Amino acid sequence: METPTTSPHATRIASAPEVLAVFLKLGLTSFGGPIAHIGYFRREFVERRRWLDDETFTDLVGLCQFLPGPASSQVGFSIGLLRAGWLGGLAAWCGFTLPSVILLIAFAAIAPSLAGPLGTGLIHGLKIVAVAVVAQAVWDMARRLCPDHRRAAIALIAMVLLSVMTTAYSQLIVIVIGAALGIALCQTTGSPMAVTPPQHVLVFRVSRTAGAVALMLFCVLLAGLPTLAAVDASHAIKLFDAFYRSGALVFGGGHVVLPLLQQQTVATGWVTPNVFLAGYGAAQAVPGPLFTFAAFLGWMLAGTPSHAMGALIAIVGIFLPGLLLVIAALPYWQALRSRPSMAAMLAGINAAVVGLLATALYTPVWTSAILTKVDFAIAVIGFFLLARWKVPPLLVVAFCALATIGEVVLH
């Protein structure tokens, strides 16, 4: 058997400011969602800068897709960690995240003042954008994550369960059921991770002790925050708990966070469906990770000491679990990625996530945005612009906004 080798790119050292500068550029220019972000990262770090080789990059992507949380942000954090240690990881996360946080906070600050035909049309157009974007996400994820009858069945089971369950933990229950069904049904579906164990070793500056501490902190917060929120009247604690649980339970990243955040903010009455979908639509028009939508929601929520504090709590809460998990997994990924049962479990979880997102496409996205035949036509055009003609999301946002402004003005 061939002896595993260490990636030659994995040991190169750089400074945190260098990492920050590169990721800040990516944070300002990376449009298109998590899948597109991975493409940007590969061009920048594998092809252009050669900070790591293609095999190492693919392994990082596989790890971060395996974990809950924002995959592109986790990949970026891991590259920064690989390149410049802990400060490099923090610099990578800040550089990639802050531009979209600032843009969405700016939108949140001016959103209440938008009035008249222009404001009404713009807000409604952003809601229709959400329909097109989520529909495209469901379509693409279903084709990629449900390629056979068994995984398609898991997705359908998830949709049915979510349609009839009313518990606050319905998404978590569906994800657990998806994992169990994946282990039971998907062991033979095949996975590159399970079939061909990698022949090189990833080298990270993360000890097993650090990984264990990160995992323990993740579990303590996940289990303890709901209890603390139940006994403490502080709205800040409840807010942090809501966003932390949303970030901790998002398998697949990106648009999958929509139903979890909707349950935590709209279903609880913290924000209205219209505000939620307007912010979600605006999030499609900015670069960087979609999870920064939390900054918009945190700013708009009442009850926190200030708008800025609400945005800060929301951003830290939603990103922290994913970063803790990637720190926890890095020292052990070499062994975990070769187990077929892990690949099967992930296949089931991903299929359940497709069902979860499809359910969210109907409510609240469709039911809140598609009110007329013209709305339907705009959404269909937006969907085809994204899915068939691969038009950049920013241009689709502009089209939907202008079309709905025109609709409002003409009526």
From TrEMBL:
UniProt key word Cell membrane: yes
Annotated keywords: Cell membrane, Membrane, Transmembrane, Transmembrane helix
Subcellular location: Cell membrane
Residues that span the membrane, as ranges: 20-41, 86-110, 122-142, 154-185, 210-231, 243-261, 281-302, 309-330, 342-363, 393-410
Membrane-topology annotation of the record: Multi-pass membrane protein
Gene Ontology CC: one annotated term: plasma membrane
Family listed: Belongs to the chromate ion transporter (CHR) (TC 2.A.51) family.
Coiled-coil features, chain-numbered ranges: none
Protein name per its UniProtKB record: Chromate ion family chromate transporter
Keyword Disulfide bond: no
Entry GO MF terms: chromate transmembrane transporter activity
